[in-house]
Amino acid sequence: MKKIIVSIIAFSLFLASCSDFIEKDQRGTQTLENYFQTVQECENYTNELTQRLLLAKEWWVLTAPRVTNEMATDDAWMGNTGQDNSAHRPASQYIITPDNMGDMNSIYTAHFYTIQSANVGLERMAVSPLTDAQKNQYMGESLFVRAYCYYELVNLFGGVPVYTKSLGTGDLTLSRNTAAEVYTQIETDLKDAATKLESAPVARNGRINKWAAYALLARVSLFQEKWAEAKTYSNKVITEGPFQLEADFLNIWNVNNHNGIESILEAQSSSVQDRNLGAALPTLSGARGEDKKNFPSNDAADVLDGWGWCMPTSDLENAYLSENDVIRRRSTITKWGEAAYGDEVLNPTHKFSLNDNKSGRICRKYYIPIATRRSLDKKDGHLPLNIPLIRLAEMYLTRAEANYHTGGDALADINIIRARVKLDPKTGISGPTLLRQIYKERRLELAFEGLRLFDIRREKDPTTGRPVIESLMGPNGTFVQYNLSSTDPYETTNLRESQDKGINFNPAKNLLWPIPQLEIDLSGGVIKQNPGY
């Protein structure tokens, strides 16, 4: 294994955060040695770790990179054509370099900061005066958090340092692990988490439980092409877990249905806005340039006026149209002038600034209904919309893909998903046609839920055996060629975001993002850059 050095900055950020966290509790002089002595202290610490999976208090740390990854796919434009796009442009336009990474810098640092924090908590809770059951609860949750951070890191950057003990200032030299070794640690953590959480209550309050661990095991098994394991874990969640598909697809992202029957794990939000507990995603990706005159009430209270990043492409809309998939299309995309699906009375013709919107479309999943807007004290980016991280439909699609590769009944699972949105079952398809349909169902079902970039990087084109992203992006990519010949009335009349999106993709390097140059510099050149950068 190669030698690398973990970023000193990431470690110093942890120290500052830990100090911050302790001071907020206002218990006098507090140190790591005398913290973790009560159930409440361990729960508070674990809750803070869980929050860092997505809903960091600063929107740019994790939420911005999440939408930037969506923008690097065929599902989304940057979208906002009226403001500086330097945070999103490097990755979304495939001009990213180690010195110009935009907001991909922040997710790298943030996840290592959380991993270090998880390690501290795990060590301290192991020797705390809690009961074994209490330790298992909080340590199981912490192990899941560490695994989730590594899952995202390995898919974004490839092999990264794996460490499971807290670091001191004199102990910053680690070995850089291969991607396979990172996945091994992820699996170890998730299996340990599932065991520790075996008897923990499965409450619908957003806490991590054993089913989240099994579901993430199913996902990472799929990503490694461990088809038998992917089938085993997804089937376990489907058949033994307490989850059901929502009868109404739109209800999955309903602000009044937090932690619904389909949800395995959601990033939690709150309507208590003065505590920064809400989600920034609906603001970051909300319609830019709303005006009260476009609402029946003519009332400024109905205006949210988002920032307009991460706008759906017409290519994605066409994918829904090709299946006559009305329910998922309208639940995922609202086109300028159309009624907001499910909010037709109060927002019958959702309009926003076309001068500032590349595609004339917004993501309906991130939409805050008018009635909720009227109840808010502030509309400053902390909004009461939970963000699903893992849900049951993904498990059906995982089992379908695993069944395809192991000789099982893949059609049955995708037809369960299609039936929920009133689509006819697929029959009589097999081989490459069936695999492409499974890929398509994942796209239509899970759009804007953080998986598209990872999927098109790992999915293999059944004709070429190469990653699907290579057939979509680059000068000859089907997505690029579609945009260059498109006649879409919105996308082609706002060229302040270039119509040749994805043309700069290079398969020799862009299957991963580069390691931030700062990390390489801090290592004295011991860290080696990803190929091609």
Sum up the structure in keywords.
533 residues, mainly alpha, two-stranded antiparallel sheet, 44% helix, disordered N terminus
Can you characterise this structure?
With 533 residues, the chain is mainly α. The protein is built from 20 helices and 8 strands. It starts with a strand and ends in an 11-residue tail after the last helix. The model is unreliable at 1-25 (pLDDT under 50).
Overall 3D form: globular
Please outline the major beta sheet: 2 strands, antiparallel
Question: Can you give the helix content as a percent range?
Answer: 40-55%
Give the neighbour order of strands across the main sheet: 1-3
Q: Helical region count?
A: 20
Strand content: 5-15%
Arithmetic mean pLDDT: 91
Listing every helix as H and every strand as E from the N terminus to the C terminus, the arrangement reads EHHHEHHHEHHHEHEHHEEHEHHHHHHH
Low-pLDDT residue intervals, each spanning 5 or more residues: 1-25
- The chain-level structural class is mainly alpha
Rg calculated over all Cα atoms:
23 Å
Termini Cα gap: 21 Å
Q: How many strand elements?
A: 8
Family: Belongs to the SusD family.
Domain RagB/SusD: 347-533
Keywords: Cell outer membrane, Membrane, Signal
Protein name: RagB/SusD family nutrient uptake outer membrane protein
